[in-house]
Write a structure and sequence with these properties.
- The protein has a domain at about 75-80 and about 90-155.
- The longest helix is centred in the last third of the chain and has 58 residues, at about 100-155.
- The protein has about 160 residues and is mainly alpha-helical.
- The N and C termini lie far apart (about 165 Å).
- The chain is built from 2 helices and 2 strands.
């Protein structure tokens, strides 16, 4: 846009405003003869702090989400932390009901004792069987010796 065209545009705009001003004066004189203006309520505005609330349809998640998984099965007897509080690594969080574990230990001890008793019994059984085998061998040797004696007695005479 050149300087001359800008001046022409400004002149045209000024003429439009002048014409519009003339018509508004004529219409204002007509409006004065019309009905009176309506009553208007006035409120004085004072500056003050106001909280801004916004509602959104969404889901929120914690920034540091921690999943707690138990490494053993059992019933929780006592909780050692407050919900929402910070915990440290290695800090006990729960005390479990120890009765099932104590029962398992007693059962394992019983099975161990039963296994030791079975081993002793088997050792005694093996010893008994060995003794019976030795006795049978001795009896067989006695029978053979008796037969040898019976066979050799006529030869000795």
């Amino acid at each position: 846009m050149t300087f001359a065209s800008a001046i022409r545009l400004t002149a045209i705009f000024s003429m439009i405003l002048a014409i519009a001003g003339c018509t508004s004066q004529a219409s204002s004189s007509r409006a004065a003869s019309g009905p009176p203006p309506p009553d208007v309520a006035v409120v004085t505005v004072h500056p003050e702090d106001t909280a801004i609330y916004r509602e959104y349809a969404a889901q929120t998640f914690a920034r540091d989400m921690v999943e707690v998984r138990g490494r053993v099965d059992g019933y929780i007897d006592k909780r050692l932390f407050e919900t929402g509080s910070d915990v440290k690594a290695g800090q006990p969080l729960y005390i479990l009901d120890l009765r099932p574990y104590e029962a398992d230990v007693q059962k394992a001890r019983g099975e161990l004792s039963q296994g030791e008793a079975n081993r002793e019994f088997a050792a005694k059984q093996v010893a008994l069987l060995q003794a019976e085998a030795d006795l049978a061998q001795a009896q067989a040797n006695l029978v053979k010796a008796q037969r040898d004696v019976d066979r050799l007695r006529p030869l000795v005479k």
